[in-house]
Amino acid sequence: MSGPNGDPNISSEDGIINDDDEYGDEEYAAINNMLDQINSYLDNLEERNDALNEKLHELLESNRQARLDFRAQLTGSPTQEEHHALEQESSLPSEQDQHEENQ
User: What b/e readout covers 75-101, taking b as 16+ CB neighbours within 10 angstroms?
Assistant: First the structure.
């Protein structure tokens, strides 16, 4: 019969595997506490990682917008905000249109 790791020269009856419970309740409690602490640290690390990832995305978006604005200034074309403002102005009736409607 093969051993616990598939080693053909070791059998499980050779007494190498001892299923007797050698650990007391205190040891299990200590291990549980350590695992809980590790889990808490990992949760904290995951939250920090998520926060950093969110900040990175915000920074990348801000950088992209600044690059677009800078490129628009160099080429003389309106920025997105200016383009949006121009669209809003063109959708509003002009003073002349309002004067003609009132007559």
Answer: eeeeeeeeeeeeeeeeeeeeeeeeeee
